[in-house]
Design a protein that fits this description.
It is a single chain. The chain is mostly helical. It is built from 5 helices and 5 strands, in the order βββααββααα. The strands form 2 sheets. The protein has a 3-stranded antiparallel β-sheet, with no helix packed on it.
């Protein structure tokens, strides 16, 4: 920033400030400010993606309850040909518990293990979401939307883990 003043006369002229944007301002005006931008650590990005995944799973399941006839099928113990056995319910519980656990583990695991866990699980859950989408005979529009967003999120998880920033190793 440069300051320009009038030195040829005795007049009291406020100095003119030139910003790097070329905008002229006098010294009494506030200095222009730019928004602060901080670097978000990859662990936080990945953890936030797992959080978003969990919210989408919950909201998609909740909206499914609003479809006509679904509650009656749930009460009968079978939805679209899938019988609710202990094994099916346990499998579903495990499938949902893993992303929930990854929210925490993405923050605390060492980078090497963290990176590979997220690459593998990001790819696995991309496959799970694609398989789930393809399992519907005629999926409702909201299901297609949720599944596409979930696929994008799981691919982002794998991508952020794959492109994990590296630093120079320090020699002690």
């Amino acid at each position: 920033m440069c300051v320009k003043s009038d030195k040829t006369s005795n007049r009291s002229v406020p100095p003119i400030l030139f910003t790097h944007y070329g905008k002229k301002m006098n010294a009494r005006e506030k200095t222009p400010r730019i928004l602060e931008d901080v670097t978000v650590h990859v662990k936080l990005k990945i953890s936030a993606l797992w959080v978003a995944m969990m919210f989408l799973y919950i909201y998609a399941d909740y909206q499914t309850l609003l479809q006509p006839g679904i509650l009656e099928q749930i009460i009968a113990g079978e939805v679209e040909g899938v019988r609710f056995t202990q094994a099916v319910l346990l499998g579903g519980a495990i499938l949902i518990a893993i992303p929930g656990i990854m929210i925490f583990l993405s923050l605390v695991l060492k980078p090497g293990v963290n990176r590979w866990a997220n690459i593998i699980l990001g790819i696995v859950y991309t496959g799970v979401n694609i398989a789930d989408l393809l399992s519907f005979e005629q999926p409702w529009a909201y299901v297609i939307f949720y599944k596409l967003v979930e696929i994008i999120l799981t691919l982002l998880i794998a991508w952020y883990a794959w492109t994990w920033p590296r630093q120079e190793a320090s020699i002690i």
